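Quick one:
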Amino acid sequence: MTDSIQTMEPQLSTWQRFLKSHFWHSFKIDRVAQLSFMIFLIYAFLAVFASFIAPFDPYDASQIDIMNSEIPPSWEEGGDELFLLGTDAQGRDMLSTILHGTRVSLTIGLCAVALQALLGIVIGLTAGYIGGRVDSFLMRVADIQLSFSTLMVAIIVLAVFQATFGTELYQQLAMIMLILVIGIAEWPQYARTIRASVLAEKKKEYVDAARVMGFGRLRIMFRHILPNTLSPILVISTVQIANAIISEASLSFLGLGMPVSQPSLGSLISSGFEYIFSGAWWITVIPGVVLIVLVLVMNLLGDWMRDVLNPKLYKG
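Output:
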């Protein structure tokens, strides 16, 4: 009788199950999470369509006039309605450079975190599932990696690369180098978290059943264990995107990030810092505010996801 009743119940689609989930309910009642997510979507939309939204192309020299340099925002005295947020020292429209700079910063942050996650997941799964000497070796490598700060490793690697191969080649490969350095420097965060989850999951009955059925190690690790460890990965990724953006901005401020010809938010702040005391405050302050809001939004989303995905912490 029970079986017949169960078969009569309509099967919910994936979207319907999501709308009934604790995750969605928590999001609906949390105004901070909703506001943070909306602001992030706005950032993402502006970054993706920057080429269409920006009134000027900051990469096109024909659209840049040095005579328009250091024009204040349109609401300031001496401002020009043509340049809503003013211009920088090179005469580029600040709104256009900020839109393109946001795209560069988000691209570096997302790609660096994707690389971190890939390395960390593979290493963490391998260490936790195989165990023994493999686990000990990989975790000692992770401990050594964690003993060095990301910025210190990045500064050394990027400075050596720039000194060895020249500034011109570095500027051409700046984005790739930043993604590689930031991504490789932060993988232990994922590896240690995944390893802890795998140690708990591999003792459960469904893993034993998969072994009995003759499934190989890779299938058990990636098809069965990995999906049950995604919650901490989502939380870490949200926070790590903010950290990667900050790292890129810091390196750009030190002159080891994106070149002036391909501005990121960090390089915009760096290029305008020397003009802040001469009265051209908007060249540094406006990109700085945009960067702060972006990092704050990512951190708020990360904190909310951590609380929701960990029932022991959630109080909603």
